[in-house]
Amino acid sequence: MTANSLPETLRHRRQKLAQLIDFPAILWSGANSPRNFPANTFPYRANSHFLYFAGIPLQNAAIRLEAGNLQLFIDDPDPSSALWHGETPTREEIAEKIGANDTRPMAELAAYLENAATVPVQDAGTWTQQTQLLERWILPKNQLEGIDLDLAKAIVSLRLTHDQTALVELRKAADVSVQAHKAGMAATSKSNVEAQVRAAMEAVIMGHNMTTAYTSIVTVHGEVLHNGHYHHPIEPGDLLLVDVGAETQTGWAADITRTWPVSGKFSSTQRDIYDIVLAAHDACIENIAPGVEYGEIHLLAATVITEGLVNLGILRGNPEDLVKTDAHALFFPHGIGHLLGLDVHDMEDLGDLAGYDEGRKRSDRFGLSYLRLNRPLRPGMLVTIEPGFYQVPAILNDPKVKSQYQSRVNWQRLEQFADVRGIRIEDDVLVTESGREVLTAALPNSANAIEELLT
Ligand code: GLY
Ligand code: MN
Ligand code: MN
Fold this sequence. Notes:
Blueprint: H1 6-18, E1 25-28, E2 34-37, E3 40-41, H2 48-54, E4 62-66, E5 69-73, H3 81-85, H4 91-98, E6 102-104, H5 124-134, H6 146-159, H7 164-188, H8 194-207, E7 211-212, E8 217-219, E9 239-244, E10 246-247, E11 256-261, H9 268-286, H10 294-311, H11 319-324, E12 382-385, E13 388-390, H12 393-396, H13 399-404, H14 411-415, E14 422-424, E15 427-431, E16 436-438, H15 447-454
Parallel strand pairs: 5-6
Antiparallel strand pairs: 1-4, 2-3, 4-5, 7-10, 8-9, 9-11, 12-15, 13-14, 15-16
Helix pairs in contact: 7-8, 9-10
The chain binds glycine and manganese (II) ion (MN) (2 copies).
């Protein structure tokens, strides 16, 4: 199926929004954040709710959506800006590109605020502007209220499932991320430090004029879940945990993790654990289908990992009982995955509004508290499946944890797996009418196939 033109897609999205709310919505794009002085800025990223309805990453702009109409508020470029930034499109040209019904300078927005709802942006300057213009606190995350909360819920219900235009972009992000991972594997034997593998991967993403969707993780210390350091030497015997994903120019993300041996061959202990994580990954993906509870998929991963660890002699007891007491979380302390879309953890700026179905709250159980998605699956949702095994010192050396699980873990046996600090395998899975489609399937994940790619 082909995607609609951008103006058609955007019109369709705002018509759907108009069916859900009977008040105007104003969404701000956000602004550049200075790095160390105003003219030297961090890379710009437009707010995702804005992007969803405006289609392109405008800066210092706002859109007003009412009854299916789109008004664009943006200033024409300052005459001096051409010297530094080149010619940029006029307000009218941008309005035509995105199919706006009307366009005005930013200063006129003040006349269109009555009864309007919004959701907060991330940069403090724009957030202050939102709060001042609307004359109320636009509180973040789980603190939204009134019409702002109603708007957030309406946007969530649209963004939870992806239209064809979004899917075209999401597939592009997935394809480029697959290529980046292959480049990372190919670069490993020629690299001495993590940073060189990262550079080879991000070169592929940048070469497609994309950016990374989140800070890349390329580490021999996979036990640090979101490790953002790249200075460690990579040596034979190490496993490299690599979580890198691309983001397209209009903001759509991919999120892939592979774990591979620096030497090109898994040790027998590494392969034993790898195969357990892969078994959990495969079982979860096989069970993705409309109507299935994502929380059940998480528990399935916990069960498969626990069974594997019992079979290896690392955990002791009946797997079902072990999962009930969260013993799996000693080694798999995070959730099985999350929503993916314009954000790598899609709509997490709204707290759990997107991830948790109406009326559901996060559990505070050790094995469930990091579960980011707890809803029945629907066709058009894109989710990650990312089981893992980690030996996190902060968990395994915690005296309270140690005493609670003392008899459940064969600590001596665990010592034999010291060369497995962290393994994660992550793919992006689209829920379809009949089941699922793995958008990142072109990147192999079996231990044998990975070893082959490393040769
Ligand atoms: N890349 C972050 C995550 O997998 O959730
Ligand atoms: Mn992920
Ligand atoms: Mn990831």
